[in-house]
Each structure stands twice: as structure tokens, then as C-alpha cells.
């Protein structure tokens, strides 16, 4: 399914690596890259930062939703504990994670849409639990600012020669 993001020289996965079985994935990835020195990059992000008030509400919502998350979700851990059997790319001493920050202007409805994409939100919703209750929505409305910052964690490496 994600093979469309791969060629024989490069492959990238965004915000999904923690869902794959590592042994099967890396076996297939090595087959896809084929040539030694092929590059693989995987990145993920964690909860975005908006402002102190929104960040606090979001952290509380995340904690409230914890038991709805699949166990694979926690394996991501900023990709710091990720098995990553690759060599550093030229000019780097390690494969990461390299930490970046992305900024995006986003209105509150788009932010809610993003929350609704969480697997935990979907699981809760199917179980009749609305994580974005009227009370939570009102708290967000009172604290909202449009600029959203995403801490991004990148692992990048090349297939051993």
C-alpha cells in the first residue's frame, strides 16, 4: 500500500512506520530499495504546540483518550526507540531522529478535523464516546490561536553497501 512512495533508490514513510511489523517491513523495504546505498526516511510528529492554554487542553484530551489508542501508537515514541537498520547518509554521524518544527496556520475547525483523524478518536466514537464534548470544544474556542507548530522527528539512512 505504501510502495508508491518507494523507488529502487529511495523510500519514505510518514507517520505510519509504527503500524508495520518491523521484520516484515524491513525485509520488503530492502527488496524495494534493491541497490545498496538506497535511502529510506521515516518521520513522525507529536502533539502540536499552539499556546499554553490550548496545549494544556490538548494534553488533557490526549490523556483522556489514552486507553482508546492501539498499542502500536506508543511504539512511535518520537522514533527514538525505533529499530532502524540503516547507515547514516553522507554528511551525518547518525540516522536520527533529527528534530524539526513545522508551522501551519489552521483554524479551529481544521484542528478538530485533525483530532477526529486520531485512531483513538475513531475507536472512542465507535464506542459511543465523544472526546470533543461540548465542554472541551468551548475550552478550545476560548483559547484558540491560528498558528500551530508541529515537532517533527525524522529518521533517515541508507541501505548498507
Structure in words:
The chain is of the alpha+beta class and 161 residues long. It has one domain: Vaccinia Virus protein VP39 (Rossmann fold), CATH 3.40.50. Helix content is 36%, strand content 20%. It contains six helices and four strands, in the order E-H-E-H-H-E-H-H-H-E. The chain has helices at residues 22-33, 52-65, 71-75, 108-116, 119-126, 134-143, and strands at 10-14, 39-45, 98-105, 147-158. The chain has a four-stranded mixed beta sheet, covered by helices on one side. Helix 1 links the parallel strand 1 and strand 2 (39-45). The longest helix is centred in the middle third of the chain and has 14 residues, at 52-65.
Read across the widest sheet, the strand sequence of neighbours is 1-2-4-3
Biggest sheet descriptor? 4 strands, mixed
Instruction: Give the count of structural domains.
Output: 1
Distance from first to last alpha carbon: 27 Å
Give the tally of β-strands: 4
How would the global form be characterised? Answer: elongated
Strand content: 15-25%
Structural class: alpha+beta
Helix content: 25-40%
- CATH superfamily descriptor: Vaccinia Virus protein VP39
C-alpha Rg (nearest Å): 18 Å
Amino acid at each position: 500500500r505504501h510502495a508508491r512512495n518507494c523507488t529502487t533508490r529511495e523510500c519514505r514513510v510518514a507517520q505510519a512506520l509504527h503500524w508495520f511489523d518491523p521484520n516484515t517491513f524491513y525485509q520488503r523495504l530492502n527488496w524495494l530499495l534493491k541497490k545498496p546505498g538506497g535511502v529510506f526516511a521515516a518521520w513522525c510528529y507529536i502533539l502540536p504546540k499552539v499556546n499554553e492554554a490550548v496545549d494544556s487542553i490538548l494534553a488533557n484530551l490526549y490523556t483522556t483518550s489514552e486507553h482508546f489508542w492501539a498499542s502500536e501508537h506508543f511504539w512511535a515514541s518520537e522514533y527514538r526507540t525505533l529499530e532502524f537498520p540503516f547507515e547514516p547518509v553522507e554528511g551525518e554521524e547518525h540516522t536520527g531522529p533529527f528534530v524539526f518544527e513545522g508551522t501551519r496556520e489552521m483554524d479551529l475547525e481544521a484542528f478538530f478535523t485533525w483530532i477526529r483523524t486520531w485512531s483513538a478518536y475513531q475507536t472512542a466514537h465507535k464506542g459511543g464516546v465523544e472526546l470533543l464534548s461540548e465542554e472541551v470544544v468551548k475550552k478550545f474556542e476560548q483559547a484558540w490561536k491560528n498558528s500551530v507548530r508541529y515537532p517533527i522527528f525524522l529518521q533517515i539512512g541508507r541501505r548498507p553497501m
